[in-house]
Amino acid sequence: MTDDNLKTETSSSTVIKFENVSKVYKGNFPALENINLEINDGEFVSIVGKSGAGKSTLLKMIYAEEAPTDGTVLFGGEPINVSKKGELFLHRRKIGTVFQDFKLLPSKTAFENVAYALEAAGTSEEEILENVPQVLDVVGLGSKMEKFPYQLSAGEQQRVAFARALIQKPMVIVADEPTGNLDPVSSWGIIKLMLKINEMGTTIILSSHDKYVVDKINKRVVILEDGKIIGDCPVGKYKLV
Amino acid sequence: MSTIIVRTIKEATKNFFRNGWLSIATSMILMLSLYTLSILFLILMTSNIAIKIIQEKSNISIYFNQDVNDETISNIKSEIEKNSLVSSVVYVNKEEALDIFKRNNANEEAILKSLEEIGSNPLLASLVVKAVSPTQYQAIYEFVNNAEFVSEVSRINYIKNKEAIDRLNFFVEKARQVGLIASSILAISSILITFNSIRITIYSRRKEMQIMRLVGASNLFIRLPYVFEGILYGLAASIISTILLLITVGFISPYISESILSKSFMSFFWSKFWLLLGFQIITGCTLGVASSMIAIRRYLKI
Q1: Which residue of A173, A236, B36, B80 could cross-link A96, Cys pair, CB 3.0 to 4.6 Å?
Q2: What pLDDT digit, counting tens, does each position of B37-67 carry?
Q3: What is the ipTM of this complex?
């Protein structure tokens, strides 16, 4: 096999690629500096670092909430074009997002929160009625479909968020500090859920500053500090230099 | 597209009822706007009709002395008709006057009896003069008073009505001026308040819009339910306002003399019911939708 062949093979399995990406926020505040990062299909990548290291900014570029000041972010080989605002929703449908504060719609039940993503994508009513309960079963909330977020525990709310991220069968799930608001027991539940989702073939990109979580996962770890990648271990433990 | 519309209506209706208090508060403020505008609308309509009716009813009656014959009167009639301020002159002779009097007093036996006792016809022949415009009665009155035939005239009954007509003219004129200013101010301020409260309602839910964006909803899909909610506010507000109007009119109606509108205020209201309801629904929905759209534009940054 020639070098060229090898190259095409790697790039076809690359889901996300950061090419010399920098981000400077207003007021000359640099958040990311010259980031080069490749994430392959089916990987589980934990991005670790202190608060303010640039973890969230990195993730926001993947779901097109922020645009790089310099460089390009490629998704499935295509650059993400944040300037096409009217079409960003099509890009976002390929990515599931989970946040520290769950971001559930407060006036919707668990079922409706998950169904909303499908409704927005124009999925038929029959498919929604079939798929949503299935996904809620996967995250272990099959019996609490009709509960509103305020009737659910923090861990359960986060499971709803994962169900919502999963429902569109995304290529990638981006989880920004998903255990940040959870107690250790709930966190452990979410870790197991993420590993399960990853085993089913979905790429997961997790940001965390929780040593316990990252060590439990025991997969690839990318370490960020002051906006730079200072470490990238294929199977790693949480460590800060 | 039809899926979007069905989901929009479903979503908006659900939101409207789930956000119970917020929806009620917003609709109530919109309702106040509509109620105020409707009342102004009613007052303007009523006064316009009242003016027309009173203009039709008002006239100058010139009564002639007992000894004046038909020929003299018809000469005087054609003389008055030549005046450009006059729109019509009707001759009522003694017999007709008696008939009218008897008809008007058909239930008053005492009066009819006393009329019989007199034996002869005590009523006078008269000319009923109508002016082109109600403001010209004074001029016509003066014209008659200064005419040569004034010696044949027993009395002119304009003086009796004069005050009422003057007062009405004054009132109508003032009501138009004040009404126009007051209704503009009220309309503008109520529109601003409504706009603001719908904006606040949407502002309080801006986080929802952000979440919707993140899960891949298109702008149209996010916006439409809020716009449709604006329509629901408008509908709810029109219904409540109409009920309130009905109560108000029912309360006021007995105090408004039927002679003003030639029917009761209540039946006048019912005759304008659909017009008023339509006016409120259109105004309410327009206000609701416009406020929603402007507010969303501000809070739905992509």
Answers
A1: A173
A2: 888 788 778 877 777 776 677 778 888 888 8
A3: 0.82
**Number of A:B CB contacts under 8 A?**
54
Contact A92 B221 (CB under 8 A): no
The distance of Cα B257 from the centroid of its chain, to the nearest Å, equals 15
* Residue numbers in A near B220 (CB within 8 A): none
Last residue of a domain, one of A153, A169, A185: A169
Cα separation, A215 vs A208, whole angstroms: 11
State the average pLDDT for chain A: 87
Nearest to A39 by CA among A26, A23, A21: A21
Higher pLDDT, B183 or B293: B293
Contact residues, chain A, for B221 at CB < 8 Å: 119-120
Q: Same domain, yes or no, for B179 and B124?
A: no
Claim to verify: residue B228 and residue B287 sit in the same structural domain = yes
Check A120 against B217: CB less than 8 A apart: yes
The side-by-side arrangement of strands in the sheet containing A78-79 is A29-40, A14-25, A70-75, A78-79
Q: Which of A169, A189, A207 is the last residue of a domain?
A: A169
B152: three-class secondary structure by DSSP: helix
Alpha-carbon distance A103 to nearest alpha carbon in chain B (angstroms): 6
pTM, two decimals, is 0.71
Angle at B88 between CA B86 and CA B93, to 5 degrees: 125
Closest residue to A89, CB basis, from B3, B19, B216: B216
Taking the CA of residue B215 and the nearest CA in chain A, the distance in Å comes to 6
- We report the CATH number of the domain holding residue B134 as 3.30.70.3040
> A104 to chain B: which residues are within 8 Å by CB?
211
Name the stretches of chain A with pLDDT < 70: 1-12, 238-241
Query: For a pLDDT cut of 70, what percent of chain B falls above it?
Result: 91
Domain of A116 in residue numbering reads as: 100-169
